[in-house]
Amino acid sequence: MTSPYIDPTEVDKEASYARYKAEDRSLGEIAGDLIDNATTLIRQEVELAKVEAKQSAAKAGKGAGLVAGAGVTALLGLIALTLGLWWGLAVLLGTREDPALGWSGVIVAVIWFAVAAVLAVAGKNEFAKMRGLQETASTVKKIPNAATGHEEKNR
């Protein structure tokens, strides 16, 4: 008894085989078409990558611009804070009518130089912790032995 169900894969196989039989193409022609299709696919992928790279670069540029704007704004705020501190110290050291602007300016400058010195020492200590590209240097030293077939010398 035959099943009323027809397997779609069998139908697809038969249609594909019938299409193959109907075509009178050599193996070279089929290989040529395959290479042409692969080339087209690679070109399309490269174009897609270019478009995506442009979009990513545009977003990165916009982000960098916003971060730079934030940095400039923070710098302006720091300048305003410095001027406020300077003026406040001037009034504290002198009077409202005769503020001690010179001494307060020196005090604010000394504070900023102290902050700069602390940051410079911290940065120098971080640089001192750097050991370079140790793993890369190690593997580069092994290249000559590997290239000449003497990998056992690298162990």
Question: What are the SSEs and their pairings?
Answer:
Layout: H1 8-22, H2 27-93, H3 101-129, H4 134-147
InterPro entries: Phage_holin_3_6 (IPR009937)
Quick take:
This protein is mostly helical. The protein has one domain. It contains four helices and no strands.
The share of residues in helices is over 70%
| Spatial shape | elongated
Number of domain modules:
1
Structural class: mainly alpha
Number of helices: 4
Average pLDDT, rounded to a whole number, is 85
Main β sheet profile = none
- The fraction of residues assigned to DSSP E strands is under 5%
Rg from alpha-carbon coordinates = 37 Å
**What separation lies between the terminal Cα atoms?**
70 Å
Question: What series of H and E elements makes up the topology?
Answer: HHHH
Number of strands: 0
- Low-pLDDT runs of 5+ residues are none
Keywords:
single chain, 155 residues, mainly alpha, 4 helices, 81% helix, 0% strand
